[in-house]
Q: What sequence folds into this?
């Protein structure tokens, strides 16, 4: 396998192209969600912004329709975190990521459940969750009644690790509110075919490549993927980055080159763009990463200038006004301020059309 060299800028442009961020694409939201192998959804709203930044003429209610029709859903998958995925990918990926949750049960926290009949807990919880979607509070009360001598919060956590739980609408619908309630994947969708780990790695490379074995493991939370990549090697192309790391890719995947223009883009909180590689230099510097990734696990919303993270943003709403506040990490290059303001106003109009006024401000 020949290992050609990729510069950092070439790697950046290839990555942005896979992530649908070099240009907006005219594709259905469900197709984009599947191409991206799901969208991290620790908070309900960020995937909507992520799709708006990637798709032409994206309508926020498109995802709401997909969720109500059970064609898309929110479920714990990669890295043991909540993702918005298609129904097909929920069936295909969830069994592969169960090992991550099994490791949680084997962690020090899992010792709180030592001596508890965990299969019985899972069966009892499944029966009640499939009878009707339940909130955490409701499930804790159910479990406490059956196992009064065990911490109900730990039992509830154990159920989350053991069962494939779907967070049902209206939770996850843009503009909707309500307590998070869960049922099982089987109750929500029925049964469906699974994927092989080889298929998952190929899907990862299509959306996040070129990438190293360590990158794929960081994204998925799975281990021993070196064996998978070795098995897939005849179907892959190898590269080396500027630090000599071996990166793998699909032979015909797009790699548009360092000169490809990269427009300004707004990336939402928790977006997988920043979370899916062990080495994130292709999109953000280590200095900036420390500002974006907080000690309590929050991944702040960022904006891209010339393809790289250049600052953070947030939207504030009060008295009928929606304001997008930008905090650049460094002076903006010529023209970028105007581009960010124009893109920001479009974002505000799409996300908060009910606001009487929209404004974009920059931190000094």
A:
């Amino acid at each position: 396998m020949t290992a050609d060299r990729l510069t950092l800028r070439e790697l950046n442009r290839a990555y942005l192209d896979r992530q649908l961020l070099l240009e907006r694409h005219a594709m259905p939201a469900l197709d984009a969600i599947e191409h991206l192998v799901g969208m991290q959804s620790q908070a309900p709203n960020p995937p909507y912004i992520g799709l708006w930044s990637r798709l032409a003429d994206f309508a926020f209610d498109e995802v709401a329709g997909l969720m109500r029709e059970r064609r898309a859903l929110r479920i714990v998958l990669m890295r043991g975190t909540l993702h918005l995925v298609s129904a097909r990918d929920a069936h295909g990926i969830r069994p592969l990521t169960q090992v991550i949750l099994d490791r949680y049960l084997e962690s020090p926290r899992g010792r709180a459940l030592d001596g508890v009949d965990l299969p019985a807990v899972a069966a009892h919880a499944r029966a009640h969750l499939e009878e009707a979607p339940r909130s955490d509070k409701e499930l804790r009360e159910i479990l406490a009644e059956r196992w009064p001598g065990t911490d109900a919060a730990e039992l509830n956590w154990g159920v989350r690790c053991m069962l494939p739980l779907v967070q049902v609408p209206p939770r996850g619908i843009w503009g909707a509110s309500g307590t998070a309630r869960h049922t099982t994947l089987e109750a929500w969708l029925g049964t469906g075919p699974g994927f092989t780990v080889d298929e998952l790695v190929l899907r990862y490379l299509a959306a996040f490549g070129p990438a190293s074995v360590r990158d794929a493991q960081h994204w998925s939370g799975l281990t021993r993927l070196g064996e998978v990549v070795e098995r897939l090697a005849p179907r892959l192309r190898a590269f080396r980055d500027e630090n000599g790391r071996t990166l793998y890719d699909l032979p015909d995947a797009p790699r548009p080159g360092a000169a490809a223009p990269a427009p300004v883009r707004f990336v939402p909180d928790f977006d997988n763009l920043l979370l899916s590689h062990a080495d994130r230099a292709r999109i953000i510097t280590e200095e900036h990463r420390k500002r974006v990734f907080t000690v309590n696990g929050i991944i702040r919303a960022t904006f891209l200038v010339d393809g790289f993270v250049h600052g953070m943003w947030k939207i504030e709403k009060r008295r009928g006004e929606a304001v997008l506040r930008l905090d650049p990490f460094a002076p903006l290059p010529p023209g970028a301020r105007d581009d960010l303001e124009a893109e920001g106003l479009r974002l505000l109009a799409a996300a908060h059309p009910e606001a009487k006024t929209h404004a974009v401000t920059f931190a000094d």
